[in-house]
Design a protein that fits this description.
- The protein is an alpha+beta fold and 166 residues long.
- It has a domain at 2-24 and 35-46 and 67-139.
- It is 21% helix and 17% strand.
- It has helices at 2-18, 35-40, 82-89, 111-114, and strands at residues 74-76, 94-98, 101-106, 118-123, 126-131, 137-139.
- The strands form 2 sheets. Strands 2-3-4-5 form a 4-stranded antiparallel beta sheet, sandwiched between helices. It has a two-stranded parallel ribbon with strand order 1-6.
- A hairpin with a 2-residue loop joins strand 4 and strand 5.
- The radius of gyration is 17 Å and the shape is globular.
């Protein structure tokens, strides 16, 4: 269980710091890209050259979930590659890479009320975790954030004598 916490900790932190940079509300859907072309494209380290974006204009009213009907559905399994995930769920709306970590973000129809996209986390090119809220998207592994888990603050670990958290 400690291994999951150590793996998921940096992943969750990176997800939370990158989610505000993913536009999804108020935009019309673009025509679907060629899945084969996207799957063949190499992953790019998008965190290395991140440029701060201007804040979005203030919304005229409260944010609401946009209706979404899943087209690409199925089960993502631990150990799958980026290309395998894209074959099952289609092209992600965003992709972030930092070092050995890759995060694939997928629409789920509850981005506002759930507070997140469906996110698949890959380490060294293989699926190690997923946060899934959308209908039709299934993760067969043990998620670090199952749907019934209440939101709570994660307190940082106190560094040990060697400087490592533990």
């Amino acid at each position: 269980m400690k291994r999951i916490a150590r793996v998921a900790g940096p992943a969750v932190l990176l997800i939370l710091t990158a989610c505000d940079k993913i536009p999804f509300i108020g935009k019309k859907a673009e025509p679907p890209a060629d899945t084969a072309q996207v799957a063949a494209a190499p992953a790019v380290d998008t965190m290395a050259a991140a440029v701060p974006a201007e804040p979005p204009p203030a919304a005229a009213g409260p944010l609401v979930d946009e209706p979404w009907t899943p087209v690409d559905t199925g089960t993502v399994n631990p150990g799958m590659t980026r290309e395998d995930v894209i074959t099952v769920w289609g092209v992600p709306v965003a992709e972030r890479t930092s070092g050995v970590w890759t995060f694939l973000y997928f629409r789920n129809g509850c981005e506002v009320s759930c507070g997140t996209f469906d996110v698949v986390m890959l380490q060294n090119g293989q699926v190690v975790d997923a946060v899934v809220r959308g209908p039709g998207h299934v993760y067969s592994g043990v998620s670090s954030s199952p749907p019934g888990r209440p939101a709570e603050r994660t307190v940082p670990a106190v560094p040990g004598p060697t400087g490592a958290a533990g």
